[in-house]
Amino acid sequence: MSDKSDQLLLNIAGVNKRFGGLQALTEVGIRIEKGQIYGLIGPNGAGKTTFFNVITGLYQPDTGTFELDGKPYSPSAPHEVAKAGIARTFQNIRLFGEMTALENVMVGRHVRTKQGVLGAIFRHKAARDEETAIRRRAQELLDFVGIGQFAKRTAKFLSYGDQRRLEIARALATDPKLLALDEPAAGMNATEKLALRELLVKIKAEGRTVLLIEHDVKLMMGLCDRITVLEYGKPIAEGLPAEIQKNPAVIEAYLGGAH
Fold this sequence. Notes:
Organism: Zemynaea arenosa
Keywords: ATP-binding, Cell membrane, Membrane, Nucleotide-binding, Transport
GO biological process, one term: L-isoleucine import across plasma membrane
Number of domains: 2
GO molecular function: ATP binding; ATP hydrolysis activity; L-isoleucine transmembrane transporter activity; L-phenylalanine transmembrane transporter activity; L-valine transmembrane transporter activity
Oligomer: single chain
Structural class: alpha/beta
Protein name: ABC transporter ATP-binding protein
């Protein structure tokens, strides 16, 4: 019988982050088990994206302990975090607009390549074979997220919802242990949100672990296994979606004490 700790993928505790006179995060922590969709919610300015940026190496924490899959890791730089096994998307779409959808996903896959610069320059057989494998995997991921037919289309000409899907495919190309999505439903219409929900369920069914920030509380409550709520950079609740919905501190944070 496996130990409960074997199921813990991400364990972060005691994160503090200050920007000048602003205390952005105060003693924030999170524990995510393998195979979960874990939600992070809170009102505007609650510190959700700041915490995301700390986890993924964009911001350096003032304090905090970080473990990924049972091993300490240091979120020192985004590319090192990607190598460690955490891939993310951003609130604002950050694709290579002039490249095709396939090329965008191939860029994500290169974090797992073994051939060096010389192999790429001189086109050794091993480098050519690896490039073929990267291209094949990129197409598989485009098919997986539902936009395989647009592989050769320039990214900037994809619809908004398909660009979001492309970002997820590119993140998946890194073979992440944790897929961190920062407001993937932002700007989507109802049909696109439904398709996104189905995609995230599909990703979970493959055994992936997802950390999700989202303002659409209804979407989060129907999708997440557990949720942490931040307010003013501090955690105020953690638990099952049903517990979060009934938590007085969460209700007050979103609706105000008068309600």
